[in-house]
């Protein structure tokens, strides 16, 4: 995929399909480690060890009549192509943590892309889910938690266009401060 935010959108679809109520998205950029790290954590249905292995094998799904699954293996291939790797830690009934690491300066590392639109799309598509988004760049960081927003909003839905517009402005400002 041309942008890391599109991978994030895709991987989070798995968490939503796994009926997660809480999804954490963390981006860690380190210039000292020359690392670009993405962590997606959910409290969905999780996977057995065998299922994790199968999920990471793109050929497995095509061999069976199961729907072709490419999300995780594509991210894995992309990360590995950038001197990085992908790890999937999962426990049935508890949840899943997907970690993708890229060499930050690698020529093939996709740009982050439009992460703000990605987060807005996720919130409007699954307003009942709590999303915690954190972006760290060396010693600077920004955290955004929809649970906190929902507490302030009380009866107003988080998917209301005016709320989403506010979130977008707020995130734009905070992302700018990270640069
Ligand atoms: N967070 C998760 N929680 C539970 N199961 C997961 C999770 N992520 C992946 N899986 C399981 O691993 C399989 C493979 O995931 P992957 O994203 O690679 O492909 P897919 O979702 O099946 O298809 P695609 O992403 O191409 O639409 C999923 O079908 C699902 O069974
Ligand atoms: Mg998927």
In short, what is this structure?
With 179 residues, the protein is of the alpha+beta class. It has helices spanning 4-17, 49-55, 58-63, 71-80, 115-125, 146-153, 161-178; strands at residues 22-30, 35-42, 85-91, 95-103, 130-137, 140-145. It has one domain (4-178): 2-Layer Sandwich (Heat Shock Protein 90).
Properties at a glance:
single chain, 179 residues, alpha+beta, Heat Shock Protein 90, 6-stranded mixed β-sheet, 7 helices
Rg calc? 17 Å
Sheet with most strands: strand arrangement:
3-4-2-1-5-6
Strand content: 25-35%
Our count of domains comes out at 1
User: What is the CATH first-level class name?
Assistant: Alpha Beta
Secondary structure elements and pairings:
Layout: H1 4-17, E1 22-30, E2 35-42, H2 49-55, H3 58-63, H4 71-80, E3 85-91, E4 95-103, H5 115-125, E5 130-137, E6 140-145, H6 146-153, H7 161-178
Parallel strand pairs: 1-5
Antiparallel strand pairs: 1-2, 2-4, 3-4, 5-6
Helix pairs in contact: 1-5, 5-7
Bound molecules: adenosine-5'-triphosphate and magnesium ion (MG).
Describe this structure as you would to a colleague.
The protein is α+β, with helices and mostly antiparallel strands and 179 residues long. It has one domain (4-178): 2-Layer Sandwich (Heat Shock Protein 90). Helices cover 41% and strands 26% of the residues. The chain contains seven helices and six strands, in the order H-E-E-H-H-H-E-E-H-E-E-H-H. It has helices spanning 4-17, 49-55, 58-63, 71-80, 115-125, 146-153, 161-178; strands at 22-30, 35-42, 85-91, 95-103, 130-137, 140-145. Strands 3-4-2-1-5-6 form a six-stranded mixed beta sheet. A hairpin with a 4-residue loop joins strand 1 and strand 2. The mean pLDDT is 93.
